[in-house]
Every structure is written in structure tokens, then in C-alpha cells.
Task: structure prediction
Amino acid sequence: MEVKEIKDFISGQVKPESAPASYIELRDIPYPQAMEEVAGYFLKNDGKEIGYEELIEELKIDPVLVVQACNELEAEGKIG
Result:
């Protein structure tokens, strides 16, 4: 999705049934679990360049949680 499409979708201007084929359903999980899953994904893919989009698609976690988890893990020196 393009950034504008994502913003429109999040703001409710685009309904799920009209979303692009790449639409994924995100899981509703608590932040500590998101942190654990993001850290685990990095461990399983050690040495690979991993972006936010890959984490969101593979883990099906809310983009806000993915960014927060990555920022915290990087600050702690666990990724990056």
C-alpha cells in the first residue's frame, strides 16, 4: 500500500472490502507480546535486513506497536 492509502484506510475513508488485495488482518495483542515477537523474529533472521513492513506482514502486528517495539529494542541494544 502507498502511504496515502494507509492513511486513508486508518482514518476510515477506505473500507476493508475495498482495500487492496494486500490487505492483512492485524492481531490485537498487548505491547509486551509484540516486543517479544519482534525480538524473536530478529533472532530467527539474524543478520538479515528487516524492515517495518516485513514485521507487520509476517507477524500481523499493528504498525504502531511494531515501530514502538523496534525503537525500544534498538535503544536497549537488542537489535540494530
